[in-house]
Amino acid sequence: MNYGNWIKSLVLCFMIVCSLSVKGQVKTIKFEQISELQKVERKPVLVFIQTDWCKYCHQMKQTLKKDQPSTNLLNKKFYVVFFNAEERRTISFAGRYFKFKPTGATTGVHELAEALGTIEGSLSYPTLCFLNDKNEIIYQYGGYLDSKSFLKTLEIISSAK
Predict the structure, then answer these.
(1) What are the pLDDT digits (tens) for 127-161?
(2) Which terminus of the chain, N or C, has fewer Cβ atoms within 10 Å?
């Protein structure tokens, strides 16, 4: 038996359980966890693409975190990733590596944000990107959604087969 791989698997399982055991708030994961979680339970993925400087992103993120009906539905029916579009680390997702692309001395955008958030040739913040269990985009929405509209969107996506 290869104990190194066994220990890595045990640590990964522990990380997954810890990330899913936060009560009363949205349980978030990282892109690198999606494939392992899909093996355990298939669910759509919500990627909330935002930036640190976007005030609408902050408002919507608070809605996602505090609106109890939305939080309950998210935790039950979805895997959720909060993704900063200006993330600088390389991310492995869906068999590819995505990197940060500088656009100036201190600015840039992550390739994964572009891949998942571009709608009709444009990337805006915040953007919601829903993926099926095969990491295919099933719905995108660019812009702010109030809690009622957000909940309605979640209900429609979660009930679609």
Answers:
(1) 999 999 999 999 999 999 999 999 999 999 999 86
(2) C
Q: Kind and range of the H or E element at 148?
A: helix 147-159
**126 cis-preceded (ω within 30 degrees of 0):** yes
Cis peptide before 69 (omega within 30 of 0): no
Q: What is the DSSP string of 108-144?
A: EEEHHHHHHH-BTTB--SSEEEEE-TTS-EEEEEES-
Q: Single out the residue of 6, 33, 8 nearest to residue 20, CA to CA.
A: 33
Per-residue tokens: 96: 């590819």
Q: Phi, psi at residue 139, to the nearest 5°? A: -165, 140
The SS3 of residue 72 is helix
Nearest partner of 85 among 120, 116, 41, judged by Cα: 116
Q: For residues 88 and 53, what is the distance between their CA atoms, to the nearest angstrom?
A: 15
Q: Which CATH architecture group holds 25-159?
A: 3-Layer(aba) Sandwich (3.40)
51 in Cβ contact with 86 (< 8 Å): yes
Q: Which residue, chain included where needed, has tokens 């444009």?
A: 122
pTM above 0.85, yes or no: no
How many angstroms separate the CA atoms of 125 and 72, rounded?
Answer: 24
CA angle 48, 117, 111 (to 5 degrees): 105
